[in-house]
C-alpha cells in the first residue's frame, strides 16, 4: 500500500521454527518486533545450508497467544480462520505467505479479506480451496476395513486434512471405534470410547483381514465393476473426479495402480 | 443363488438409472448435506449410493428396457434381510452414502411397492439405518403407498422415461402418462404440506426431505432438444423437482421401433442437455431463451451459454464493476461462484483483468464480453477470433461420430457435419467461418 509505512521491511535472514502453529505465531511476533520480513521461514528439520543468517525462533506460548488474540482484534475472525486453515495446507512457503498476509492485514484491517483478487489474498484462498476440496473428497474416498471389530483406514492426502474430516467421521461412526492413519503427515485420528484425538504416529501395521471382511471387499469390488456402463467408458472423466493419487488406498481401484504387485 | 451373484445381476439391471446423488437430506453426521461421492466408475459416473433393484422380474414390456418381460435374461430378487445387510456393511466401511432402491414390477405396482416399503422399514427401524435412501416410485401404485414410501426415503423419483406421450405409448405401452404424473403431483403436494407440519412441530415425520427427481431417455424417440428442455422447465416449475436426469439411450435390445444396436449413444447431445439444465436451474435462463421452435436443436460446437451470447452480442460488453449479478451470470466464462465473488470483491475497489483472473473467471471466453477499467471496449477483436475462442473443446474429445447424432436446424446455413469434412479441425474451421458470418 503506497503512502502507509509497512510494519516490517525485507531483511537477509531466515527464520526456523518447530513446525507447530504456535511456533509459526512466534515467528510472526518476532518479525513484527524486529521490523523485518525474513527471506523464508522453515521448519527446524529442513534447516538450510546457507551463508545467510539463520534465526531460530523459540516457541513461547505467551507470545503465540498474543499473536492469536491480535488477529480477530486487528484484522477479522475470518482472517484467523484463513490463517489456521492455510497453515494445514500444502502451499509452498505457506509460512512466509501467511506472514505477508498478516503484516498487510495489521495495516489494512478486515477489508483485506474481501479483496479476493489481491495478489497476497488469491494464493491463500486457492490453497484453502484446495485443502477444503481435498477434505470433502476424502469424506467419500476413505475406505475402512473391519479389523477385529474396529475400523481402520489409511490415507495419503497432500494437505493435512485430518482436523477437517474428524467431526464428520466421529458423528457418522459414533458407536464404533475407528482409526484413520495419514501416511503423508504421519498422524492418526483415533476414536474410541467416545473420545477422538489426533496422534503423531510414524507407522501403523494393519493386521490380516478376516474372511468376513474379505467377503465384503469382494462384494464391493464386484458391485463397482458391474455398475459401469461399457458403452460409456470414460477414463479421463473418472480421473478428473477421482484423481489417481487417491487410488492406492481405495480397494476397488487399487489393483489398477499396481497390477503387477498383486 | 448366492449373494455375490444376486448383487451382480441386480446392480447390472439398475445401472442405466442416471441419478446417484445424495444431496439434500439434512441429517448431520449420517449424510453429507451437499452430497458425497464415494467413488467413480469406469464410465466416470459418481457412485454415492448402492444402486440396485429389489428384483429384476418385470411384468411390463417397455421396449427400451433391459429388464423387459420379453427379454431373455437371468432373474432374481433380494430378500429384505440381504439388502439390509449389504447396505449396512457397505455404509459402515464408508463405501457408500446410502441406498438407491428401484425395482421391476412384480405382480402389480402395489405389490412391488409393498415389497420395497417392507425392505426399507426393516432397514430404518430394525437396523436403525439413517443414511441416505433414494427410492423409485412405481408408476400406478396407490397414493397411500407413495406416502408411506416418502416417509421412509430421503428422495423419491418417478421416471417420465420418454419426453412425450406419443413416444411413451409407442415404446412403453404399459405405462400411462397419468400413472407417472399423478404420483409426481402427489409427492409435490405432500412435500408442501410436510413443510408446514415441520414448521409447526420440528419433530414431525419428514416426507422425502431431499425432494423428488426424474429421468428421461434421450435419443430413443424423435423429440427435439427444445421439446425436451421445455418439458424439463415445466416439471421444475409445476412439480418443484430437484433434478431432471437425461440418459443417452444405449441400444441394449433389438427392436424395430428403436435405434439399431450399432448406433452410438448420443453423449454430446446429453452433455448439451445437462448444460442447458444447469443454465435453467443456476443461471436464470428460460428454456425459450436457450432454444426456440425455429432453432429446436443444440449447436454441437458451442455450449448453450456461448450460443446464447453469440446471438445476443448487442447486450455485451457488460461492465464487471457495475453490472448486476444476473447480467454477470450471462457472461461466458463467469459461473455462479465467480459471479458472487466479483460482487463481493468489487465493494473494496475496482476490479481489473488480473483480479478477475485471480477470482477464477475464465478470461479465454469472458474477455470478449466484459469491460473493466483496464480493458476498454475499443480493444475488441474481430468476430472470427471471438467465435474461435468460444468453440467448446469438448467437441474434440467426444469425436466426429457424435456430431452426426445432432439434427440439422432448418433455415440456417447448415453447420458442417461428419459427412462433409475429413477431420475435426476442418469441421471446427468451417463452423467458425459459418458462425462469424451470421453474427
List the helices and strands and how they pair.
The complex is a heterodimer of chains A (262) and B (439).
Chain A: E1 9-10, E2 13-17, H1 21-34, E3 36-37, E4 40-43, E5 53-56, H2 61-74, H3 77-87, H4 94-108, H5 121-141, E6 145-147, E7 150-155, H6 162-172, E8 178-182, E9 187-192, E10 195-200, H7 211-227, H8 235-241, H9 254-257
Parallel strand pairs in A: 1-3, 2-4, 2-5, 7-8
Antiparallel strand pairs in A: 6-7, 8-9, 9-10
Helix pairs in contact in A: 1-2, 1-4, 2-3, 3-4, 3-5, 5-6
Chain B: H1 3-12, E1 39-40, E2 46-47, E3 49-53, H2 80-92, E4 98-102, H3 109-126, E5 132-136, H4 143-152, E6 155-157, H5 165-171, H6 177-200, E7 212-218, H7 225-239, E8 243-248, H8 267-282, H9 287-290, H10 304-311, E9 318-319, H11 325-329, H12 336-345, H13 353-359, H14 363-366, E10 370-371, H15 383-390, H16 394-398, H17 400-403, H18 424-438
Parallel strand pairs in B: 3-4, 4-5, 5-6, 6-7, 7-8, 9-10
Antiparallel strand pairs in B: 1-2
Mean pLDDT of chain A: 92
Low-confidence stretches of chain A: none
Please give the order of strands in the largest beta sheet of chain A: 6-7-8-9-10
Helix share bin of chain B: 40-55%
Unreliable stretches covering 5 or more consecutive residues of chain B: none
The share of residues in extended strands of chain B comes to: 5-15%
Overall morphology of chain A: elongated
What is the radius of gyration of chain A computed over CA atoms, rounded to a whole number of angstroms? 22 Å
CATH topology of the largest domain in chain B: TIM Barrel
Describe this structure in words.
Chain A: It comes from Sporobacter termitidis DSM 10068. Chain A: Residues 93-252 form the DUF4130 domain. Chain A: This is Probable DNA metabolism protein. The complex is a heterodimer of chains A (262) and B (439). By secondary structure, chain A is of the alpha/beta class. Chain A folds into 2 domains: 9-131, no CATH class; 136-257, no CATH class. In chain A, 44% of the residues lie in helices and 16% in strands. Chain A contains 9 helices and 10 strands. Chain A has helices at 21-34, 61-74, 77-87, 94-108, 121-141, 162-172, 211-227, 235-241, 254-257, and strands at 9-10, 13-17, 36-37, 40-43, 53-56, 145-147, 150-155, 178-182, 187-192, 195-200. In chain A, the strands form 3 sheets. In chain A, strands 6-7-8-9-10 form a 5-stranded mixed sheet, with helices on one face. A 3-stranded parallel sheet of chain A has the order 4-2-5, with helices on one face. In chain A, strands 1-3 form a two-stranded parallel sheet. In chain A, a hairpin with a 4-residue loop joins β8 (178-182) and β9. In chain A, α1 (21-34) crosses α4 (94-108). The radius of gyration of chain A is 22 Å and the shape is elongated. The model of chain A has no long low-confidence stretch (mean pLDDT 92). Chain B contains 18 helices and 10 strands. Chain B has helices at 3-12, 80-92, 109-126, 143-152, 165-171, 177-200, 225-239, 267-282, 287-290, 304-311, 325-329, 336-345, 353-359, 363-366, 383-390, 394-398, 400-403, 424-438; strands spanning 39-40, 46-47, 49-53, 98-102, 132-136, 155-157, 212-218, 243-248, 318-319, 370-371. In chain B, β1 (39-40) and β2 form a beta hairpin. Chain B is globular, with a radius of gyration of 24 Å. The model of chain B has no long low-confidence stretch (mean pLDDT 89). At the A-B interface, α5, α6, α7 and α8 of A face α1, β1, β2, α2 and α12 of B.
Amino acid at each position: 500500500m503506497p503512502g502507509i509505512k509497512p510494519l516490517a521491511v525485507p531483511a537477509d535472514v531466515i527464520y526456523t521454527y518447530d513446525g507447530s502453529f504456535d511456533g509459526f505465531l512466534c515467528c510472526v511476533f518476532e518479525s513484527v518486533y524486529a521490523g523485518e520480513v525474513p527471506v523464508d521461514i522453515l521448519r527446524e528439520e529442513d534447516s538450510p545450508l546457507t551463508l545467510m543468517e539463520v534465526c531460530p525462533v523459540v516457541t513461547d506460548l505467551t507470545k503465540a497467544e498474543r499473536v492469536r488474540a491480535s488477529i480477530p482484534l486487528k484484522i477479522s475472525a475470518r482472517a484467523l480462520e484463513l490463517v489456521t486453515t492455510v497453515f494445514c495446507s500444502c502451499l509452498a512457503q505457506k509460512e512466509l505467505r501467511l506472514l505477508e498476509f498478516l503484516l498487510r492485514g495489521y495495516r489494512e484491517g478486515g477489508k483485506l479479506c474481501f479483496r479476493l483478487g489481491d495478489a497476497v489474498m488469491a494464493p491463500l484462498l486457492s490453497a484453502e480451496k484446495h485443502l477444503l476440496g481435498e477434505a470433502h473428497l476424502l469424506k467419500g474416498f476413505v475406505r475402512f476395513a473391519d479389523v477385529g471389530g474396529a475400523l481402520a483406514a489409511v490415507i495419503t492426502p497432500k494437505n493435512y486434512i485430518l482436523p477437517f474430516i474428524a467431526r464428520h467421521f466421529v458423528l457418522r461412526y459414533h458407536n464404533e471405534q475407528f482409526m484413520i492413519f495419514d501416511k503423508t503427515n504421519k498422524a492418526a485420528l483415533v476414536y474410541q470410547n467416545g473420545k477422538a484425538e489426533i496422534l503423531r504416529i510414524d507407522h501403523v501395521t494393519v493386521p490380516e483381514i478376516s474372511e468376513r471382511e474379505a467377503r465384503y471387499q469382494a462384494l464391493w469390488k464386484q458391485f463397482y465393476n458391474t455398475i459401469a456402463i461399457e458403452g460409456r467408458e470414460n477414463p479421463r472423466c473418472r480421473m478428473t473426479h477421482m484423481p489417481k493419487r487417491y487410488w492406492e488406498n481405495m480397494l476397488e481401484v487399487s489393483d489398477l495402480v499396481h497390477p503387477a504387485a498383486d | 443363488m448366492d449373494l455375490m451373484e444376486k448383487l451382480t445381476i441386480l446392480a447390472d439391471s439398475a445401472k442405466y438409472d442416471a441419478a446417484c446423488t445424495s444431496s439434500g437430506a439434512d441429517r448431520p453426521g449420517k449424510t453429507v448435506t451437499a452430497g458425497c461421492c464415494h467413488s467413480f466408475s469406469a464410465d466416470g459416473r459418481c457412485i454415492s449410493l448402492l444402486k440396485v433393484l429389489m428384483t429384476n422380474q418385470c411384468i411390463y414390456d417397455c421396449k427400451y428396457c433391459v429388464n423387459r418381460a420379453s427379454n431373455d435374461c437371468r432373474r432374481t430378487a433380494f430378500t429384505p434381510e440381504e439388502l439390509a445387510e449389504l447396505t449396512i456393511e457397505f455404509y459402515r466401511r464408508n463405501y457408500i452414502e446410502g441406498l438407491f432402491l428401484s425395482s421391476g414390477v412384480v405382480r402389480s405396482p402395489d405389490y412391488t411397492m409393498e415389497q420395497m416399503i417392507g425392505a426399507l422399514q426393516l432397514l430404518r427401524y430394525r437396523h436403525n439405518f439413517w443414511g441416505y435412501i433414494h427410492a423409485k416410485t412405481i408408476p400406478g401404485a396407490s397414493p397411500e403407498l407413495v406416502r408411506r414410501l416418502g416417509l421412509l426415503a430421503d428422495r423419491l423419483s418417478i421416471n417420465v422415461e420418454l419426453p412425450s406421450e406419443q413416444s411413451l405409448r409407442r415404446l412403453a405401452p404399459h405405462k400411462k402418462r397419468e400413472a407417472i404424473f399423478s404420483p409426481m403431483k402427489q409427492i409435490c403436494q405432500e412435500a408442501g404440506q410436510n413443510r408446514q407440519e415441520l414448521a409447526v412441530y420440528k419433530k414431525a415425520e419428514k416426507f422425502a426431505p431431499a425432494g423428488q427427481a426424474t429421468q428421461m431417455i434421450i435419443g430413443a424417440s424423435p423429440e427435439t432438444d427444445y421439446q425436451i428442455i421445455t418439458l424439463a422447465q415445466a416439471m421444475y416449475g409445476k412439480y418443484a423437482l430437484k433434478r431432471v436426469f437425461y440418459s443417452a439411450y444405449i441400444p441394449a435390445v433389438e427392436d424395430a421401433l428403436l435405434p439399431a444396436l450399432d448406433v452410438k449413444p448420443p453423449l454430446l447431445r446429453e452433455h448439451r442437455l445437462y448444460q442447458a439444465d444447469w443454465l435453467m436451474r443456476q443461471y436464470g435462463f428460460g428454456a425459450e431463451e436457450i432454444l426456440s421452435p425455429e432453432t429446436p436443436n443444440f449447436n454441437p460446437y458451442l455450449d448453450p451459454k456461448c450460443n446464447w451470447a453469440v446471438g445476443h452480442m448487442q447486450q455485451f460488453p457488460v461492465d464487471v464493476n457495475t453490472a448486476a449479478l444476473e447480467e454477470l451470470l450471462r457472461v461466458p466464462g463467469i459461473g455462479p461462484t465467480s459471479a458472487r465473488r466479483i460482487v463481493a470483491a468489487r465493494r473494496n475497489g475496482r476490479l481489473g483483468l488480473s483480479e478477475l483472473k485471480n477470482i477464477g473467471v475464465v478470461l479465454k471466453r469472458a474477455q470478449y464480453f466484459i469491460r473493466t477499467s483496464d480493458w476498454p471496449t475499443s480493444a475488441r477483436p474481430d468476430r472470427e477470433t471471438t467465435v474461435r475462442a468460444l468453440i467448446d473443446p469438448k467437441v474434440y474429445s467426444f469425436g466426429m461420430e457424435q456430431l452426426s447424432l445432432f439434427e440439422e436446424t432448418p433455415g440456417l446455413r447448415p453447420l458442417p457435419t461428419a459427412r462433409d469434412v475429413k477431420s475435426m479441425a476442418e469441421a471446427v474451421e468451417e463452423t467458425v467461418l459459418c458462425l462469424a458470418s451470421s453474427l
